[in-house]
Amino acid sequence: MLPTIEWDRDKVIMIDQRKLPEEEVYVECKDYSQVAEAIEKMVIRGAPAVGVAAAFGVALGMMKIGEEEKRDKEFYLIYRRLKKTRPTARNLFWALERMKKIFEENRNLDIFRLKERLIQEALAIEREDIEKNKKIGFLGKQLIKDGDSILTHCNAGALATAGYGTALGVIRAAVEEGKRIQVYADETRPFLQGARLTCWELDKENIPVILITDNMAGYLMQKGMISLVITGADRIVRNGDTANKIGTYTVAVLAKENGLPFYVAAPLATIDFNLGQGNQILIEERDPQEVKEVGGRCITLPHVKALNPAFDVTPAKYISAIITEKGIARPPFEKSLTKLM
Q1: Residues with catalytic annotation?
Q2: CA–CA separation, 77 vs 122, rounded Å?
Q3: What torsion do the CA atoms of 253, 275, 334, 53 make, to the nearest 10 degrees?
Q4: What CATH number does domain 139-340 carry, 2.60.120.260, 3.50.80.10, 1.10.3300.10, 3.40.50.10470?
Q5: SS3 225
Q6: Predicted confidence (pLDDT) at residue 59 exceeds the cutoff of 90
């Protein structure tokens, strides 16, 4: 299992995902503002992992509080800062809401016991995420047959979670069962999570992987080289519309056109029942310079403008099933997802 993030007494340690696969460098965050910056700057990414990082950030921030009377002011300052880091991933807000609930239920404890309670909750969120991912893998592996070729987009493995992974967790579980599979990982521009992270993870696990550019997916499907597609998710709304890394919608449409199953793997914490349709999801816009550069080198004219939406929304009609830790939901998703909650 890959070391994505861990709590170490008075600091949070996380692998710097910007450096992979060339270097395995670990970043130490010693206060909540450093955790917030790590989330914003993509040191850590992936919806479940970001949720764990936010929970650790709250606990770390509260550890620095020395005076009883400042607890309320400082907690909400920390909470608001972490809440502003990334707007799309539901898991971030879910984890922060859990930490807020624990704080408000225990605010009358002495400051030392309150801090300990917050640390325990953050560690529980981390532990539960790994357990949920393994359940997702166990349930999802039934959708994969021996000999399948699987296309995945972005990175939804151990690096995107507290460990094991969602979409890659399903693949990992199928391999552990003895199924022979071939994975195709698209590069996932502009941050190259597929090329840099998914290939690195699968290579570590000795799972066969072939890298393709994002615009090769349709060709491979047309040639019969893909059996199914499986991705993670950053936010799923009530009707099943799913926000995931930019380009997911394109892959889903291609899968539908070519008669291939398109599966989404995500914990129930990713589902936002407060939103009814995908057009209500706030899509993060990142620095356009990320599009204009590869490895820090500009690939276009410096004055050319660029767009950089980090996510897109795949309508539910393109999704064959959503794999969660409590079961596999199928259309109509509003009914099937509600039953799992």
Answers
A1: 234
A2: 18
A3: 80
A4: 3.40.50.10470
A5: coil
A6: yes
